[in-house]
Amino acid sequence: WAAIHRFGFQKILGELNEKRVHSLTNVLTFNLNVHRAFNELTLYFEEDTSVPNRYYVRCTGGRPQVVHAGIPDHVTFSTSDGVNYPLPEPKYLRIHAACCKVAHMSGAADIFVLEDDEDPDPSDPAFAHALEARLSLLS
């Protein structure tokens, strides 16, 4: 939520407050590996403006098939009932993609990976980088 706020999307905080965070416009279902990559900001979707509701699957570490076996180049979302079963909100997918790109370019994505580790090694360079990034937020 802090990243959403800092990127200037305060309106979204209201759109997705409380129970609305589980709105179908904000829900995607993945297998465990894809879910982890999406949460760790290494997998995201980019709109294909030539085909409605079609998105290219992107990974910060390269092509999706190389990083995660079995992931297609693109997905097309569809629904038989857009009122009761709406598609994912493109705006939310664009914001997630922007967060992935910024986190990857800044190195901040390492923090998410380290937070999932139960006992990170303080002598590991990635841990030092994550700690430095965290400390920079305090200044």
3D architecture notes:
With 139 residues, this protein is mostly helical. The protein has one domain. 45% of the residues lie in helices and 10% in strands. The chain contains 7 helices and 3 strands, in the order H-H-H-E-E-H-E-H-H-H. Strand 1 and strand 2 form a beta hairpin.
Offer a quick outline of the entry.
The chain is mainly alpha-helical and 139 residues long.
Derived from helix and strand composition plus strand pairing, the structural class reads mainly alpha
SSE succession: HHHEEHEHHH
List how many beta strands DSSP finds: 3
Counting H and I runs of at least 4 residues, what is the number of helices?
Answer: 7
Helix content: 40-55%
Strand content: 5-15%
First-last Cα distance: 20 Å
Low-pLDDT segments? none
How would a crystallographer describe the biggest sheet? 3 strands, antiparallel
**What's the gyration radius in Å?**
17 Å
Please describe the structure with a list of short key phrases separated by commas or semicolons.
139 residues; mainly alpha; 3 strands; 45% helix
Topology:
Elements: H1 2-6, H2 10-15, H3 32-39, E1 43-47, E2 54-59, H4 64-67, E3 74-76, H5 90-106, H6 109-116, H7 125-138
Antiparallel strand pairs: 1-2, 2-3
